Amino acid sequence: MSTFVSTFRGKANAYRRLMTMALTGVSATALTLALTPARAEESIDSGQIVTVPGDHPSPWNLVGETLIVGDTGAGTLIIENGGIVSADVIVVGRADNGVGTVTVSGTGSDLTATGLVIQVGSSGKGTVTVNDGASLSSTDLVVGHFNEGTLTVTGNGSSFALTDHLGIGSWGKGTASLTDGAVAVTGGLLTLGVFESGDGSLDISGEGTSWEVQEHAFIGNGGRGDLQVRNGASLDVAQTLNLGDDATGSGRVTVSGTGARLIFGDLMAGVHGSAVLYIENGGALGNAGHNAVFGIGATGTADMVIKGQGSTFTANLVTIAEAGKATISVSDGAWLETGITSMGQQAGSVGEVHLSGPGTVWANTADDIYVGQFGEGIVTAGGGARIDAVSYVRLGADVNGRGTIALMGASTALEAGVAIEIAKSGLGEFTVAGGASVKHDGNLLIGQSNGSMGIAEVSGSGSSWQGLGDATIGESGIGTFAVTDGATASLVGNTVVGAVAGGGALWADGGAISTGTLTLGDAGAGTLVVENGGSVTVGGGAGTVLVGTQAGSHGTISIGNGNSAGTIGATRIQFGAGDSSLFFSHTDEEYRFDPILKGNADIEHGGGRTILTADSALFSGMTRIWGGTLVVDGVLGGTVDVDAGGTLGGSGAAGDVTVASNGTVAPGNSIGTLDVGSIIFDAGSQLVVEVNGLGNADLVNAAGTATINGGLVDVLPLPDVSIDTPYAIVTAGGGVVGGFDGVAFASGSLFITPMLTYDASNAYVTLAQTTDFADVALTPNQKAAASGIQSVGAGQVFSAIAALGDIEDARDAFDAVSGEIHASAKTVLVEDSRFTREAAISRIRAASDSVAAPQTASVLDGIEFWGQGFGARGEWESDGNAASLERSLGGFVLGTDAAAGDWRLGLLAGYGHTEFDVDDRSSSGSAASYHLGAYGGTEIGGFGVRLGGAYSWHDMEIDRTAAFNGFSDTLSSSYRAGTGQLFGELGYGFTAGAARFEPFANLAHVRHSTRGFAEDGGAAALNAARETVDATYTTLGVRAETELAMGQARTARLTGMVGWRHAFGNGTPDATLYFGGGDAFTVSGVSIARDALTLEAGVDIDVSSTASFAIHYSGQIASRAQDHGVKTSFNVQF
Fold it and tell me: Which helix (H) or strand (E) holds 1132?
């Protein structure tokens, strides 16, 4: 670069100012070819305009002379129609105030500097335009030397040729353009923004437009340079394209539009300054056989953006951040093609590549990709972008190198033709997420050298990793391969975790990993973690996991890692000569572990419930249980220590067992035998056994001795028990030594007292009932249910209650199984019988125009039809025995009647639906009721006489849940019931002023019967026989009414009633029930209200002379019950 600068300076110093010719009597605009130059320096100045046409020999061929256009003033030179001007040096806009303009136009027109240079904008301002097939040529050309210069070459056939260098914006501002089919050749350098204050821009645009630079091109050498190649134009730089060469330089290159291309020998972007490159809209930059370096010096920065379908960058050896910083962004279907690629080549450098969008591709066509060689390299790809690498992809390749690759999104992919190395000697991180994928045909190596550290993580549903070679995770460094959250990984070859002196981890956290073979800790330290439903499958599920194979190695398997467990798909786990461990620390309640365990290792169980199913008799290590439950349903060799907080269970076989204080042995799986070698129960230990009603119990069977140094036995019913039956709970071929400190039934029962006995080879427990159930019951219903259960003497309900240790739990249990809703349902149906009789009496009163009766037609001789709807909501409060009940019902009654002498007689039919709930007993029911009845009435001496009878059929549906601590049963029943009633009323009406009154007395007798039934359900199902309930009601009260005129001869009547109702007989219906195989017991329901205030209020409206409508409220309020209803009626006379 220094040669180029000194050349320009030499040429500047060679400029000599010659005498300016005198122009006398010639106007500036008239200066033409007739003006003949006659001195060594010729100037066109002071507003002169010189036109050189091509139709005469040109006198403007100045051999050895300088031509100045615009020296201290304005000067214009026009060369046209084949005109030719030449001089040794041409300066356009020389001095500070000089303004020079040159236009070369037309085929054959030419401007040539035959000696050194053309300067456009030396210290003044200069503009040169070449168009319409004209040409310009020189050895060197400077545009914007100290001031502003503009060069425009445009049009087909227009040309521009230099045998040496072109500088645009040396110290000033230079602007150049080559457009619309023009061509240019620069034999030497092309420089934009030569020195720090220089500002140069070049625009090459249009189909057929081309520029050839035969040496180097500097864009932003020490100043600012801006190069654009657009819309089908081309620029070919034979040697190096250099952007931002000096620390003060900033270069910008844009290649835009279909067909636009820039070809370089090599590319140096951001040498010591800054560089920005844009390739967009189908533009192309590069040269497949040549090299490109971005961010070269420590202060150099380079950013390249490749955007849009058809936009491409191509180079062979590519360095992205040699010692500086560089970023390449590729998006929207653009293409990046490289050979061997190094990112972050030297310490302190940072190189980045970011790819996004479908169709976006980075094609590495030769050799390797180094992401973070000695510096830092970062690669991201998303939105369906792809990376196709022909060979290796290496992250953190050398010491202190740090490499990161992150793939995100569906269809985003990386494929490597050979291998992927993550942290060969430095640091490496590779993440695949959101449905992205990785495939490599060779090996996977993570953490290869001492001091290296690498991690690969594949996460999210649809994300995948496929490796067709072997995998080494933690060779001599530290390596981790993690597959999480629904992702998958297939490593088809041999996978070694912790190969030499390194430490490696294979992690399946909700993801699935498959591999041909798997070794954990070959000569190093290897860990496998499966958690949160993750899985590792070896050899298609038929393989063997090798753990701690060589002496000095360390191999670890962790199941759950404190979370939910994962699975290992292998037939065998072989522990070798190294230190090996298998950890179970999960939250699963039923986790099966099927692989066979062989060799010597430590098994640690710290959480969850794990079931060992395989025959691991050849396991020779120690198992320590300090949390959760380890269930041995297969065979487990070695020794077992059950420490505080741990439980050993199962129906398989284990070696010698020691149970420490607060450790637990719970043999069997709902009655079973655990075989052991010898067993020692230390003081404070616990043995938990289940017993059933057939005399069977869980058993610890020791081939050797059973040494019992104390501890407790806890006996659980499953699902029932046998009273006074000795259950064998420990048996020992070598004898039983010592005894337990105590025994409890279900951790302390109110009713059962367990007792321990021993003989030489056995320990027994016997259960005796020492308290009857009814002894702890409180209410009559509880005592009745308790007696019923007690009479059964066995079964699930009996055993579940017998196991209760809290008195309130026991009482709740008695209430839960009592079935009291069957009794309370009777109360509901007996009380609701009033709606049918009230409808009949109301109709008779209406027909005889009694006080406060619903309004009807005035003619009584014919047949009349009537209808009445009703609805009500009511609640019966608890009396301390039966629980509160809520009821709602709705229905209707239809009837017809006619006069028969002094009487009016009729028939009625109806339907009602009732729903009721007893929330405190988890019970509910419904009744569909069908009614038939007859009624009649007459007037005798001013007294109204009303009589009737009715029968109702009920389809009952009862659902309840009998649930208490340790037991739950869902029960249902369907059965028939019926309610019959006879009723009568006597009333006397009289008038007082505008109101009418009627004192009355009402009598009704009701009989309700239920058929026998058997509940559907489990052990708590109840049975009942046919039962009957009777109730008699009397009501004394007074009715009143008055009328209001409504116009058009229509009236509205306001009515009301207040009364006192009294019930005779047993006010609390009962239900006699029994459990299968037990005695009958009787429970009571909610009470029938003994005394109640009855109320009515309503309005009756004449709709026409033959029809009326009425709506009435009726209610009754008692001390523990209240009911509120609405009745509507519509009467029509035919």
Answer: strand 1121-1133
Last residue of a domain, one of 136, 154, 186: 186
Chain CA centroid to CA 138, Å: 70
Share of the chain above pLDDT 90, in %: 84
- The token pair at 598 is 């062989």
Whole-angstrom CA distances from 525 to 504, 528, 651 are 6, 10, 35
Q: At CA 993, angle to CA 987 and CA 995, rounded to 5?
A: 45
Q: Give the Cα separation of 135 and 107 in Å (integer).
A: 8
User: Distance between the two ends of the chain, CA-based, in angstroms?
Assistant: 123
Q: Which residue has the tokens 């009291």?
A: 820
Are residues 762 and 832 part of one domain? Answer: no
CA neighbor of 428 nearest in space, from 369, 487, 386:
369
Task: State the total domains in the chain.
Answer: 3
What digits encode the pLDDT tens for the residues 43-95? Answer: 999 999 999 998 877 788 888 899 999 999 999 999 999 999 999 999 999 99
Stated pTM of the model: 0.72
Does residue 1103 form part of some domain?
A: yes
Residue 949's domain is classified under what CATH number?
Answer: 2.40.128.130
Coil, strand, or helix at residue 826?
helix
pLDDT tens per residue, range 500-549:
999 999 999 999 999 999 999 999 999 999 999 999 999 999 999 999 99
Is 87 inside a domain boundary? yes
- Of 1034, 944, 937, nearest to 988 by C-alpha is 944
Beta bridge pairs of residue 918? 923
Mark whether 698 and 828 lie in a shared domain: no
Query: E strands along 282-410, which residues?
Result: 284-286, 292-294, 301-307, 312-314, 318-320, 325-331, 335-338, 341-343, 350-356, 361-364, 369-371, 376-382, 386-389, 393-395, 402-408
Task: Please check whether residue 702 lies inside any domain of the structure.
Answer: yes
DSSP structure string for 653-719? EEEEEEE-TT-EEEEBSSS-EEEES-EEE-TT-EEEEEE-TTS-B-EEEESS-EEE-S-EEEEEESS
Residue 335 in tokens:
């293409």
| pLDDT (tens digit per residue) in 1086-1130 | 999 889 899 989 887 877 777 777 788 888 888 877 888 777 767
Bridge partners of residue 916, in order along the sequence: 887, 925
C-alpha 489/C-alpha 178 separation (Å) is 55
> Residues 722-763: pLDDT tens digits?
888 999 999 999 999 999 999 998 767 899 999 999 999 999
Indicate left, alpha or beta for 169 from its phi (over 0: left) and psi (-120 to 50: alpha): left
Question: Which residue type sits at 47?
Answer: G
Whether 348 and 378 have beta carbons less than 8 Å apart is answered as no
885 plus 1007 within the same structural domain: yes
CA angle 330, 334, 340 (to 5 degrees): 65
pLDDT, residue 718, reads: 79
Tokens 């059965």 locate to: 975
Domain assignment of residue 75, given as a range: 1-186
- Taking residues 406-412, report their average pLDDT: 98
Contacts (Cβ under 8 Å, ≥6 apart) of 874: 831, 886, 887, 888, 1121, 1122, 1123, 1124
Query: DSSP 3-state assignment of 864?
Result: strand
Element (DSSP H or E) covering residue 798: helix 796-802
* Bond from prior residue into 719 cis (ω within 30 degrees of 0): yes
Residue-level pLDDT at 853: 76
Which residue type sits at 469? G
Nearest residue to 435 (alpha-carbon basis) of 385, 394, 391: 385
In 794-941, where do the E strands start and end?
Answer: 864-876, 885-900, 903-918, 923-940
Residue identified by tokens 């605009």 is 29
Helix (H, G, I), strand (E, B) or coil at 989: coil
852 and 936, same domain (yes or no): yes
